[in-house]
């Protein structure tokens, strides 16, 4: 069943039930080498799935959970191999969406849930997205409205209590450093799991990350481009071919609206989707990272 979270919709199953979890991989066409995030209702349940919590992880949990933060922690034997793809750590998070949080409080098992999209496609942030991309393959979608954060959770692991950021999100590197001191971004050299591959989250229509819209128009043709931009329309293209992610300087709104804009542009069958790059810090870095992965290389 699909569940709403504050980041994106997830496709959930009882994390302790191997058969149920294997259906997630089938529905998403996801390789079983790519592990899943385990969603729990509180710290007590988190302690059930992990062996130990380093002090920096406790500090981050106290500050950001429930919320869009996933921690990689040594797993307990209760968690089946299929969930972690045999890795020694389990990815675990306490989501803050009220509907899913109360569902987790009602049931007595955690929910393993990846994003509710076919493997490699854009994550869904609205029920209509889930319905369009996975509708025929899943029995039920819990309607929790639009996802507020709009991009997947920040993933943090630890080496000797030092945080390593494996996926950026609306909780930024700066937020983490303010809480626990220095944190490192995982360099692309070491891919710990396929979700961290360079190509991911992509629409079917080729996507270009660009600073220079004029040269993209020259190359592709004015009527063939769908442009996603930030706080003002470009005067180089008809407004009907553009989607503005936000009207102010609030990059958070950019994250909230990003995937809905990509879904919409992909539906409209342009020859190319062009997206403007953001300044590369804070949430801008998380958004650029998603767009880079989604782009034609
Ligand atoms: O916001 C989110 O995190 C959403 C919502 C539904 O919670 N979930 C999500 O799940 O984005 P998914 O499966 O699409 O992305 C999880 C990422 C993948 O890149 C996966 O490879 C990585 O987390 N991951 C999961 N378990 C891991 C583990 N034990 N060690 C390393 N990476 C892991
Ligand atoms: Mg995903």
Task: List strands and helices in order, with pairings.
Elements: E1 2-3, E2 10-11, E3 13-14, H1 18-28, E4 37-39, H2 43-49, H3 55-64, E5 69-74, H4 81-84, E6 89-93, H5 98-106, E7 111-112, H6 127-134, E8 154-159, E9 162-167, H7 173-180, E10 184-185, E11 207-210, H8 213-220, E12 225-229, E13 242-244, H9 251-267, E14 272-276, H10 283-294
Parallel strand pairs: 4-6, 5-8, 9-10, 11-14, 12-13, 12-14
Antiparallel strand pairs: 1-2, 3-7, 4-7, 5-6, 8-9
Residues 114-115, 123 line the site of magnesium ion.
Distance linking N and C termini: 34 Å
Q: Give the overall pLDDT as a whole number.
A: 93
Order of helices and strands: EEEHEHHEHEHEHEEHEEHEEHEH
Note the main sheet.
8 strands, mixed
Share of residues in strands? 15-25%
Ligand types:
threonylcarbamoyladenylate, magnesium ion
* Order of neighbouring strands in the sheet with most strands: 3-7-4-6-5-8-9-10
Put simply, the count of helices is 10
Shape: globular
Number of strands: 14
> What percent of residues adopt helix (DSSP H or I)?
25-40%
Question: Which stretches are poorly predicted, pLDDT < 50 over at least 5 residues?
Answer: none
Radius of gyration in whole Å, from Cα? Answer: 19 Å
């Amino acid at each position: 069943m699909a569940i709403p979270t504050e980041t994106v919709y997830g496709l959930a199953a009882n994390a302790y039930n191997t058969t149920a979890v294997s259906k997630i991989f089938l529905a998403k066409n996801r390789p079983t080498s790519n592990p899943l995030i385990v969603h729990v209702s509180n710290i007590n349940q988190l302690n059930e799935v992990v062996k130990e919590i380093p002090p920096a992880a406790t500090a981050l949990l106290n500050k950001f959970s429930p919320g869009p933060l996933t921690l990689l922690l040594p797993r307990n034997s209760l968690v089946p191999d299929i969930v972690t793809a045999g890795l020694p750590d389990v990815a675990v998070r306490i989501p803050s969406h009220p509907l899913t949080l109360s569902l987790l409080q009602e049931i007595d098992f955690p929910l393993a849930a990846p994003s509710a999209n076919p493997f490699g496609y854009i994550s869904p942030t609205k029920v209509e997205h889930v319905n369009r991309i996975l509708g025929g393959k899943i029995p039920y979608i819990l309607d929790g409205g639009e996802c507020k954060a709009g991009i997947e959770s920040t993933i943090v692991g630890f080496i000797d209590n030092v945080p390593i950021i494996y996926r950026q999100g609306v909780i930024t590197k700066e937020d983490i450093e303010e809480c626990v001191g220095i944190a490192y971004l995982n360099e692309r050299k070491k891919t710990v799991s396929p979700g961290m591959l360079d190509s991911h989250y992509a629409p079917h229509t080729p996507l270009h990350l660009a600073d220079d819209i004029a040269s993209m128009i020259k190359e592709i043709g004015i009527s063939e481009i769908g442009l996603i931009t930030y706080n003002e329309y470009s005067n180089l293209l008809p407004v009907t071919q553009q989607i503005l992610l936000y009207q102010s300087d609030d990059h958070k709104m950019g994250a909230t609206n990003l995937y809905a804009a990509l879904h919409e542009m992909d539906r409209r069958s342009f020859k190319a989707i062009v997206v403007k790059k953001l300044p590369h810090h804070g949430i801008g870095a998380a958004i650029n990272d998603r767009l880079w992965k989604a782009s034609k290389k």
